[in-house]
């Protein structure tokens, strides 16, 4: 097979990889805030539910979670989900899983903000919501950037797990090519593309860190 | 009593089984400069934190002028609603021991953001007030800097400017110089002295005895959760009546 054709197939898969990546971020970044706040809630039942959620999603393989969401509706409720359900299951699985990890990173950041910041805001008359949005969150973002960079780079490579649902993302495309061509070259090219993707993320994260480097505390 | 800016009646506060405030009553009138001295763990900071709503009283009542913040109901302090607390917070300011400036905001924004965000003041007006106050604190030209670029003394003066900008009826200081070396302490104390000479109403928890004597009208000596002795500044420092006060002040004999 011509190299150009092979690249075309892999880049076609990359589109799905990128889609899974961004859909996961769009869903999990805000959902993580909700889970983190629930986890830190003084209302015990809510905090326990959040702990349980985090424990399950971090404590079982993402691959199994994807399969459970894919096949759960049929085996548990007898629901026929149709051919496109695999994309829905994939998005839900990734978002739920990454929200658990993000929540713990957010929590570490939120709990690292000194009490004095809350007290100063309280005395000045900021409401709880204003304190969180204007005083706490911007400082949390700076503090959690390195940990978030780690997690986001892991996500790039985790997208390959979508192959278990039969989604033709880049890893699955490489696997199919390798089988047909009896060659490891498609895997090597895929690895290179994953790496370039991660380089881009490193570059962006560095930019953001530099931008927030104007202060320290 | 019409001049009372803030008054606390029979304030009580415990942490677990440890009663930190035992029936404290305190009234600060307009223009008063009150210093609170005493050993660590004597309840000074807790008193200040209760008066600035960072802690809630177990018992007693607290009022800012005509605004009842907490009322005594059968020995228990019952607090007003959110709006009452918000209104009370407009009437006092607090300067912390470790400044607690917002590190991600510039000096200017540290002062203007509460004005804009809480008091809904137009931005231009808030900035004009900040520039004026920074000049008064000797910090002109530092507007665009962030707190980590300033010395501790400068940060504390920004914190004072931030509190003053809100135009409070009374300004509380919780050991404002305890985190500073003697030189930086002096520049902060000078600012507080200037405020005293303008008859700003202030309550200052401090370990600087000579400063307390010079700047305060009245001094309270607190220990073991009670006011042991209270009197005119000069008299309490130079001629204390209680043995406990004498013993405490003898530690500062060289001051």
TrEMBL record, chain A:
It comes from the Bacteria. Keywords: Amino-acid transport, Cell membrane, Membrane, Transmembrane, Transmembrane helix, Transport. GO terms for biological process: amino acid transport. CDD domains: TM_PBP2. The chain crosses the membrane at residues 12-38, 59-77, 83-103, 184-205. It is a multi-pass membrane protein. InterPro entries: AA_ABC_transptr_permease_3TM (IPR010065), ArtM/GltK/GlnP/TcyL/YhdX-like (IPR043429), MetI-like (IPR000515), MetI-like_sf (IPR035906). GO terms for cellular component: ATP-binding cassette (ABC) transporter complex. It holds the Pfam family BPD_transp_1. One of its GO terms (molecular function) is transmembrane transporter activity. It is found in: Cell membrane. Belongs to the binding-protein-dependent transport system permease family. This is Polar amino acid transport system permease protein. It comes from Parvibacter caecicola.
UniProtKB/TrEMBL annotation, chain B:
This is Polar amino acid transport system ATP-binding protein. PROSITE patterns: ABC_TRANSPORTER_1, ABC_TRANSPORTER_2. Keywords: ATP-binding, Cell membrane, Membrane, Nucleotide-binding, Transport. GO terms for cellular component: plasma membrane. Residues 6-249 form the ABC transporter domain. Its main location: membrane. It is a peripheral membrane protein. The keyword DNA repair does not apply. It is found in: Cell membrane. One of its GO terms (molecular function) is ATP binding.
């Amino acid at each position: 097979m011509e190299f150009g054709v092979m690249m075309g197939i892999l880049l076609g898969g990359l589109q799905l990889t990128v889609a899974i990546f961004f859909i996961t971020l769009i869903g999990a970044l805000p959902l993580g805030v909700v889970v983190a706040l629930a986890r830190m809630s003084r209302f015990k039942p809510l905090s326990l539910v959040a702990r349980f959620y985090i424990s399950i999603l971090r404590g079982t393989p993402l691959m199994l979670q994807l399969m459970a969401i894919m096949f759960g509706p049929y085996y548990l409720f007898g629901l026929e989900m149709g051919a496109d359900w695999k994309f829905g299951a994939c998005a839900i699985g990734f978002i739920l899983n990454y929200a658990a990890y993000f929540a713990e990173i957010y929590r570490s950041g939120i709990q690292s903000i000194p009490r004095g910041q809350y007290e100063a805001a309280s005395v000045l008359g900021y409401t709880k919501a204003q304190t969180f949005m204007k005083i706490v969150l911007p400082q949390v973002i700076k503090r959690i950037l390195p940990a978030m960079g780690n997690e986001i780079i892991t996500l790039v490579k985790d997208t390959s797990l979508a192959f278990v649902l039969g989604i033709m993302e880049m890893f699955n495309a490489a696997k199919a090519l390798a089988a047909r061509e009896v060659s490891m070259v498609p895997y090597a090219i895929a690895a290179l593309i994953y790496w370039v993707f991660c380089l881009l993320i490193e570059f962006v994260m560095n930019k953001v860190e530099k931008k927030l480097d104007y202060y320290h505390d | 009593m019409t001049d009372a800016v803030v008054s606390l009646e029979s304030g009580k506060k415990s942490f677990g089984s440890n009663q930190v405030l035992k029936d404290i009553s305190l009234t600060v009138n307009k223009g008063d400069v009150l210093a609170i001295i005493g050993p660590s763990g004597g309840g000074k900071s807790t008193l200040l934190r209760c008066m600035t709503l960072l802690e809630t009283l177990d018992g007693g009542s607290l009022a800012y002028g005509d605004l009842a913040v907490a009322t005594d109901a059968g020995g228990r302090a019952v607090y007003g609603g959110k709006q009452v607390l918000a209104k009370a917070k407009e009437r006092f300011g607090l300067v912390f021991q470790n400044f607690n400036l917002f590190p991600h905001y510039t000096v200017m924004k540290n002062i203007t953001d509460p004005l804009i965000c809480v008091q809904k003041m137009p931005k231009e007006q808030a900035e004009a007030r900040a520039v004026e106050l920074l000049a008064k604190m000797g910090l002109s030209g530092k507007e665009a800097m962030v707190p980590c670029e300033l010395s501790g003394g400068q940060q504390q003066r920004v914190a004072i400017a931030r509190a003053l900008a809100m135009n409070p009826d009374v300004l509380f200081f919780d050991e404002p110089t305890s985190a500073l070396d003697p030189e930086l302490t002096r520049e902060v104390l000078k600012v507080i002295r200037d405020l005293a000479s303008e008859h700003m109403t202030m309550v200052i928890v401090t370990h600087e005895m000579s400063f307390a004597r010079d700047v305060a009208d009245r001094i309270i000596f607190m220990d073991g959760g009670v006011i042991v002795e209270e009197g005119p500044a000069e008299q309490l420092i130079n001629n204390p009546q209680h043995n406990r006060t004498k013993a405490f002040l003898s530690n500062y004999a060289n001051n």
